[in-house]
Specification:
alpha/beta
């Protein structure tokens, strides 16, 4: 078994490590003790993850563990005010102190919910992320974004709250369904498409080995984490370059809100469609060559990911959203400034940019042509 790899996120005064490797869950107690000496820990997880990994985590935490794990339903609908209130109540019942830690054991939903609870409980307690999905390992567990959803859209209520430690145990990905793994892979591809063309080239040649859970999977997770750490260090609160990490997300989040967070369209699938739309819109606007857009979309399709509004219709079993529905939901996006829509578009594979004040008329015409 290869040695764990560590990616350092050197934010001044809030430095933390992302530890990546196999078999790390059994060593989580020692890793957490080094990052947060003496901290007691409360675990938040979901009903799918708990049977697989909560017993091992509980054993390694030993006397540091406070009570039983707090278990939530699986799925995007868990990121709600009601579940946030329940999480905070349970943590307060446990008498968690500021020096103690909330451990998020699960995918992006649990990471976001537990992270937000940690951010607001007593104005901030420690957070340890133990992501168990590919999407969470390469994206949502890193960088400090936390939050919940509302009827107005995804992640519109939240806070920035950096973890004290991220433990990415590659072995936990073995229990993912093929669909969930593919969805996480969309976020891996994103790093190549937005700013690292050589990484995208590598993925084109290594995708099958990544999907086979070989050593290239660890390489892909590490490279994705390094890319995100670099951007977070430069722009922690998304006032500039960090917005590039949202390639495909404005379209994708609108589709998730339209689908109702019911599990019929999961996050990575929505982002894959969103990235395909971003490339095709970039081509339509004259920013990007058609060959680059076709290459990006072809890789997503070869990975088993959806790339069109017609596929959102197939996945959800309901008619594709109207152009007006999509645009209205996109206008709820966090990147809207003074009512003007901002999109992440591309000039080439590996060269994303922030497009401000995108014309709604041009976007509407494009989406009209994309509807099935």
């Amino acid at each position: 078994m290869s040695q764990p790899r560590t990616v350092r996120v050197p934010l001044p005064g809030r430095e933390y490590d992302i530890v990546i490797g196999r078999g790390l869950l059994a060593d989580a107690g020692a890793l957490i003790e080094r990052a947060a000496p003496g901290a007691r820990c409360a675990v938040i997880t979901d009903k799918n993850v708990a049977p697989h990994y909560a017993p091992t985590l509980s054993r390694t935490l030993g006397a540091r563990l406070i009570g039983d794990p707090i278990v939530f339903p699986h799925g995007e609908a868990t990121k709600s005010f009601a579940h946030l209130e329940r999480a905070c109540a349970r943590l307060l019942d446990a008498r968690l102190e500021r020096g103690d830690a909330v451990i998020a054991l699960g995918g992006g939903v649990i990471g976001d919910l537990a992270g937000f609870a940690a951010a607001i409980l007593k104005r901030g307690v420690r957070l340890v992320q133990i992501p168990t999905t590919l999407l969470a390992q390469v994206d949502s567990s890193v960088g400090g974004k936390t939050g919940i959803n509302t009827a107005h859209g995804k992640n519109l209520i939240g806070a920035f709250h950096q973890p004290s430690l991220v433990i990415a145990d590659i072995d936990t990905l073995s229990t993912l369904s093929p669909r969930e793994f593919r969805a996480g892979y969309a976020e891996v591809v994103k790093y190549g498409l937005l700013g690292d063309a050589p990484f995208f080239d590598w993925l084109e040649g290594s995708r099958e080995a990544v999907f086979a859970h070989g050593e290239p999977l660890i390489d892909a997770v590490e490279r994705s984490c390094r890319a995100k750490a670099e951007i977070v260090l430069e722009d922690e609160r998304e006032t500039g370059r960090r917005a590039l990490l949202n390639l495909g997300h404005t379209f994708g989040h609108a589709l998730e809100a339209w689908a109702g967070y019911d599990g019929s369209l999961i996050h990575g699938e929505a982002i894959a469609i969103g990235m395909a739309l971003a490339f095709r819109f970039s081509t339509r606007e004259g920013h990007c060559r058609e060959e680059d857009a076709a290459r990006a979309v072809a890789h997503l399709r070869a990975s088993g990911l959806p790339t069109s509004l017609a596929e959102s219709e197939t996945l959800t079993g309901k008619p594709a959203p109207s152009t007006d529905e999509i645009v209205e939901l996109m206008q709820q996006d966090k990147k809207v400034v003074q009512g003007s829509l901002t999109l992440i578009l591309v000039r080439a594979i590996g060269e994303a940019f922030v497009a401000k004040a995108v014309g709604i008329g041009r976007l509407t015409n494009f989406l009209d042509g994309e509807r099935p």
